[in-house]
Amino acid sequence: MAEKIIELNNVNIYQGDNLILQDVNIVINRGEFVYLVGKTGTGKSSLLKTLYGDLTLKEGSGTVVGFNLKEMDWKKVPFLRRNLGVVFQDFQLLTDRNVNDNLKFVLRATGWKDDKLMNEKIADVLEKVGLKSKGFKMPFEMSGGEQQRVDIARALLNSPKLILADEPTGNLDPETSDEIMQLLFHICRDYGTSIVMATHDYIVINKYPARTLRTERGRVEDNATVSMQ
Ligand SMILES: Nc1ncnc2c1ncn2[C@@H]1O[C@H](COP(=O)(O)OP(=O)(O)OP(=O)(O)O)[C@@H](O)[C@H]1O
């Protein structure tokens, strides 16, 4: 039977007292690539935040990479985060240190101690994203596409079963977006990593079709059809 990486049952998602999404029911299996689309303000980020423990699950039930979201308090969130990778539109790299040290910072923060093992892991993830010799570059010395690759490398550090990506191509030109999509699909296919990617980029979706969830009028529609808009 397929391994469920995400399961939400009858979930209601709130921002403060405002109900943003209601009766959300989703199952995402190991190795699936799933888009999350929907107009601005319809709740894509709120859904992703629920999945990575930034928004507390108040109503309904859910698990993500084996963690029960209902019982998730702030002490357990770091353990959840170690088991999934998050990629953002604006890269969120530390600007005062080079790529290796950005990655080492995350490893240390997630409990790694052995320098040799950390260096091996960093070399491994940089190779996976095609930045083998770029570890000594500072973020400001890199293009947007390269910085997004570093962000993806960072998400891969703890070999997660799931990557949540919030508009990872949002700041990139079409050609660079294309390269990032190829990288994400390669990670999904070759390492069995499930990927949920929020996007407004219909060119990307049309070129790389996959299961699509759509946030609309307070609901999440599964397997939404997407056409050029
Ligand atoms: N921290 C917050 N506090 C209160 N309300 C919020 C907060 N963050 C988002 N909201 C509200 O929740 C709703 C959903 O926002 P959300 O960011 O999830 O939408 P989105 O679909 O991701 O939008 P976008 O495509 O612009 O990123 C919006 O009405 C927004 O104003």
Automatic annotation (TrEMBL):
<keyword id="KW-0131">Cell cycle</keyword>
<dbReference type="Pfam" id="PF00005">
    <property type="entry name" value="ABC_tran"/>
</dbReference>
<dbReference type="InterPro" id="IPR015854">
    <property type="entry name" value="ABC_transpr_LolD-like"/>
</dbReference>
<dbReference type="InterPro" id="IPR017871">
    <property type="entry name" value="ABC_transporter-like_CS"/>
</dbReference>
<dbReference type="GO" id="GO:0022857">
    <property type="term" value="F:transmembrane transporter activity"/>
</dbReference>
<protein>
    <recommendedName>
        <fullName>Cell division ATP-binding protein FtsE</fullName>
    </recommendedName>
</protein>
<comment type="similarity">
    <text>Belongs to the ABC transporter superfamily.</text>
</comment>
<dbReference type="InterPro" id="IPR003593">
    <property type="entry name" value="AAA+_ATPase"/>
</dbReference>
<dbReference type="GO" id="GO:0005886">
    <property type="term" value="C:plasma membrane"/>
</dbReference>
<dbReference type="GO" id="GO:0016887">
    <property type="term" value="F:ATP hydrolysis activity"/>
</dbReference>
<comment type="function">
    <text>Part of the ABC transporter FtsEX involved in cellular division. Important for assembly or stability of the septal ring.</text>
</comment>
<dbReference type="InterPro" id="IPR003439">
    <property type="entry name" value="ABC_transporter-like_ATP-bd"/>
</dbReference>
<feature type="domain" description="ABC transporter">
    <location>
        <begin position="6"/>
        <end position="228"/>
    </location>
</feature>
<keyword id="KW-0132">Cell division</keyword>
<keyword id="KW-0547">Nucleotide-binding</keyword>
<dbReference type="GO" id="GO:0005524">
    <property type="term" value="F:ATP binding"/>
</dbReference>
<dbReference type="InterPro" id="IPR027417">
    <property type="entry name" value="P-loop_NTPase"/>
</dbReference>
<dbReference type="GO" id="GO:0051301">
    <property type="term" value="P:cell division"/>
</dbReference>
<keyword id="KW-0067">ATP-binding</keyword>
